[in-house]
Design goal:
Blueprint (H helix, E strand, L loop, with lengths): L2 E5 L2 E4 L4 E8 L8 E6 L6 E6 L5 E3 L7 E6 L4 E6 L8 E7 L9 E2 L3 E6 L1
Parallel strand pairs: 2-11
Antiparallel strand pairs: 1-3, 3-8, 4-5, 4-9, 5-6, 7-8, 9-10, 9-11
Length: 118
């Protein structure tokens, strides 16, 4: 069973930075793409950033140039560095691990709250 444990959320002011971490267990972490999603009240969950096992990265347009995703396969951990935070970044942030087999379930962290005040 894959388990994802997130940390690093909090309450900050606009323009501040936060770093989220997601530690995975129960997975051959290095062979999987990983991602960060977020969900604000009343909104659908949306992809923020993803990184493949080979290091290819994609970002939502709304965070390009401000957020940086990275991974440390030796630590089974994926990070999200968030700089120049804006009030519209306020959401619960979730770590995502894809299914380990075709037709299997995806895995999600418990979520960490990020609140940005203006």
């Amino acid at each position: 069973q894959v388990q994802l444990v997130e940390s690093g959320g909090g309450l900050v002011q606009a323009g501040d930075s936060l770093r989220l971490s997601c530690a995975a267990s129960g997975s051959i972490f290095s062979i999987y793409a990983m991602g960060w999603y977020r969900q604000a009240p009343g909104n659908q969950r949306e992809l923020v950033a993803g990184v493949t096992s080979g290091g290819r990265i994609n970002y939502a347009d709304s965070v390009k140039g401000r957020f940086t995703i990275s991974r440390d396969d030796a630590k089974n951990t994926v990070y999200l560095q968030m700089d120049n935070l804006k009030p519209e970044d306020t959401a619960v942030y979730y770590c995502y691990h894809p299914p380990r087999r075709v037709g299997g379930n995806s895995y999600w962290g418990q979520g960490t709250q990020v609140t940005v005040s203006s």
